[in-house]
Design a protein that fits this description.
The protein is of the alpha/beta class. It folds into 2 domains: 219 residues, Spore Coat Polysaccharide Biosynthesis Protein SpsA, Chain A (Alpha-Beta Complex); 192 residues, UDP N-Acetylglucosamine Acyltransferase, domain 1 (3 Solenoid), CATH 2.160.10. The protein has 9 helices and 35 strands.
Amino acid sequence: MPTVPRTADRPLACIVMAGGKGTRMRSELPKVLHPIWGRPLLGWVLSAVREAGAERVVVVVPPDAAEAVAAVVGDAETVVQPDQLGTGDAVRCALPALAGFSGDVLIVSGDTPLLTAELLGDLVAAHAADGAAATAATFRIDQPGSYGRVLRDATGIRIVEAKDATPSELAIDECNAGLYVVEADALRPAIASLTNDNAQGEYYLPDVIPAISAAGGLAAASLVEDASLLLGVNTRVELAEAAQIIRDRIVTAHLLAGAGIVDPATTYIDADVELEADCVVHPFTILRGRTRLAAGAEAGPHSVLTDAVLESDAQAGPFAHLRAGTHLHAGSRVGAFAETKNTELGARSKIPHLSYIGDATVGEDTNIGAGNITANYDGASKHHTTIGDRVRTGSDCVFVAPVAIGDDATTGAGSIITEDVPAEALGIARARQVNKEHYAKRKRDV
């Protein structure tokens, strides 16, 4: 079979095999949807293949997870693998989605979150440089165990599964990584020729290699030097191992870009968090979702921020909890044991401690006293609280939304504010104090 000439702009598609049930995870959640730093496990694979240049992506999923996986794959297409008949069967299920595609097909497993765009790009480049019809990624390991072995000869390579290997073949230390680049026009007939005449009764994807070689195409191998990038996740132990590696990658990238992370070992940052140079993240802090810290902003210690924005010189912590929709403007602060949600805090304003402020807009230069609460939920709907500029609220105030506090207003300590307070006014809403003389003596005499 003649080899199609390579060009730098040769189209690249990708098939992601995510049809396994993941029973060893001991979880009702499909394996590829288990989260790693703000993305499902599968999301890390998709990010790598897209960054590597895949123009079309097809994800193969089991029937009981089709809808759940489809909800997280973005513009990728999903196809169902009705029965678990092996990796070759998974690719067979995917190929109709690539009907008419003429280019190279990158084939990866959906449970390999440590893959990088650089690794995949190198594999595609090696495939092109060799003029190969099929290229398998390989790695070397001292104790290959159950990995498929790679057999090389003058005509190219072939791969034998460990369960089907002879003793001499099992002694080989070069292993199949389960990662391939194959010409689409060579892949289709090779997949159609697969049989399940093997120890497991499955359709092995590696068997396309000899089929392509028999048809006249070159089958090559590309050795991956860092085998840790090929880690597949099958258990929660391996999930934790992968998460640790990815966490270190994320933290290192932020440090190199100039973010101040005081103690990387106790800092946890999701993939889509943005940290500008010269922000500071203190120990035991978790930054989730699309949280963003501008230069000079500080988070922590012991704080959790989710989808929050801190502008320059804003502070959150210690022991602060900023939930989705929190926006701290320049120089503002949320302090110890304070929680915010869907709240905009104006420049230089403060929620120093022990408060819950949710569904609120707070103006500039305002101080929220200790123990303040916005009662934003009436049992059926959420309501908004508006607090103006230069407001001073007393300790232990409750704002029963919807309610507005005007600029330069004050609320008395212990007040339950149910009506708007005009600008520059003092709002007090509490019972009058009554002292009962000789109460202790009367109680003793009973």
